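Hi L., both proteins are below.
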Amino acid sequence: MFKTNQPKETMTKKEIQELSKYLVEKTKGQFHYEEDYWKEFFSNSEVEKLEKKINVCMEDQNYNYFCKQLFNSFDNLYK
């Protein structure tokens, strides 16, 4: 079986938590999924991968948890 670099269509809660923390830390608290300026903090190839993961997080079953984890990450950024 070959492994692909394409993100899965689902993500675990731990993966969502890690992604939200990474996005907030890497952008120094400037991440917002409705704005494009966060992309300046990443390479073009990484933006493509992150956008796919973010789209999975924006799905109905993940959306509330993703938002909650983003808020937690923002709160913990400068502790």
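That was the first. Here is the second:
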Amino acid sequence: MINLEEKDYKKLKEIIPKGHLIIASSNYTGFRNFLGFIAQFIVNPMQRLTGAFYDNKKIYIAHIFTIFWKDDELWVGEMDKKEAWKESPIEQSNTFIKLKKGQIDLFNLGEIEDQKFEDFCFYAKFQKYSLIEAISSLKLFRFLNLFISYKNRFQSNKAHCGSIFLKYKPFHKFFKITGESFFRKYKTHHPESIYFYLEKKDFKIKTLKIKDQKLC
């Protein structure tokens, strides 16, 4: 897990503005840990072979989540395959627990009223993790989309880490694209496509490098 020192936490607080919608992505690298090995030596080659045009080629974007302020502290909101939607202090989040080497990218989608963000969190609590949607978001398994109806993809209470943000209609104005239009354009809500889109739209504010379980 990431050993978040006091100076690192203070730095994060300076980077992440209050009252803004922050979307973050993470990736894993390195042969010394299981997730890093899977990402770097199995998933990355598979992605290159299947030819997804938005591939980074060097890193595999594994997770999309949000970082927000709560009680003057930083929290993470994310979809978790075991617990569905999960809100936790940043150091207890899945990313900070699992990530040993790689990077976290932060995207600022603009100011958002506290109540509107709380409305999203309320909506998210009723979403169930969709394993088939998560798998079908990979280009290699895109054929599984044949078994997912339009209603299930855009109107049901099933989602994965990337789609939960794009399915929520009030967030479309922040992303500057609807979930349906995004899917038509990229054929997926996979974390890599979201990363590609947000970077292209110049939403990125910071890249945090992780090495030896520490922020660099």
